[in-house]
Amino acid sequence: MSTVKLLAMLALAALATPSQAQAQDEGGVSPYRPSVSSPAQLPRPGQLELELGGLSQRGDGARRNSIPYTLKLAFSEQWGILLGGEAQVSSRDAAGQRAYGLGDTALVLKRAFLVDDATAFGLELGAKAATAKSSIGSGENDYTLNGIFSKDAAVVHMDLNLNLTALGDHEAGAGRVQNGESASFSTALDDKWGATAELARTQRRGEGHTAQLLLATFYSPSKSLVFDAGLARGLSPASPRWSLFGGVVFPLARLW
């Protein structure tokens, strides 16, 4: 099944699903996508949410298409887990070598520290399992510690992330620990439309740093359904030159 057909089917499912969830609960969803930055806040406790999208990356003769997903479940306002990865990957490198298959899978334990309605800190401890074959992923497990600061200031919501990732696969002479930084800013344009801008970068000793600027728009026909679309431009030679994406966030079930 093609990526476009799969996303179309899931979008139709999303349109049907929120009507039931919304009848039970007007709490809405808490989108984390499409930015690199994660918010400190967790979804509504007991509500299982699905984030699903399509991502297409181009640069230096290589291309990569994937279907990223994230399942989110909060046990309380302070604790939750995330399970995510890529349901399908199709890539072609600059030499024309192609690869298809499942991507890597990440499990994240999240702790939120709520200061007030407008301010929160967060801490994420994540482990990436090498479920992809080596032609798609690194073939090794990675571990990440991510610190988050989220703030509502007037009409703008801000998420700042600082993280350290211990890479299982690293070249001789290069550092094993990768530093990541990102800052995301979003605002509502009206009662249904909004926009997001983000700067993100990574760096590691002995390797070129990555950097990108992301711009996206999102549309929410109801509290329980959010669509997004946008693009990212690489700002360094080590980054994909262009990335195009689109996706949807909706609740799968109320577990309690």
Write the layout of secondary structure elements.
Blueprint: H1 3-24, E1 47-59, E2 62-74, E3 79-92, E4 98-101, E5 105-114, E6 119-129, E7 142-153, E8 156-166, E9 177-188, E10 193-204, E11 207-222, E12 225-234, E13 242-254
Walkthrough of the structure:
The chain is mostly beta strands. 9% of the residues lie in helices and 59% in strands. The protein has 1 helix and 13 strands, in the order αβββββββββββββ. The chain has one helix at 3-24; strands spanning 47-59, 62-74, 79-92, 98-101, 105-114, 119-129, 142-153, 156-166, 177-188, 193-204, 207-222, 225-234, 242-254. The relative contact order is 0.19. The model is unreliable at 18-25 (pLDDT under 50).
Shape: globular
The overall pLDDT, averaged over residues, is 91
Helix content: under 10%
Number of strands: 13
Keywords:
single chain; 256 residues; mainly beta; 9% helix; globular
In short:
The chain contains one helix and 13 strands; from the N terminus they run H-E-E-E-E-E-E-E-E-E-E-E-E-E.
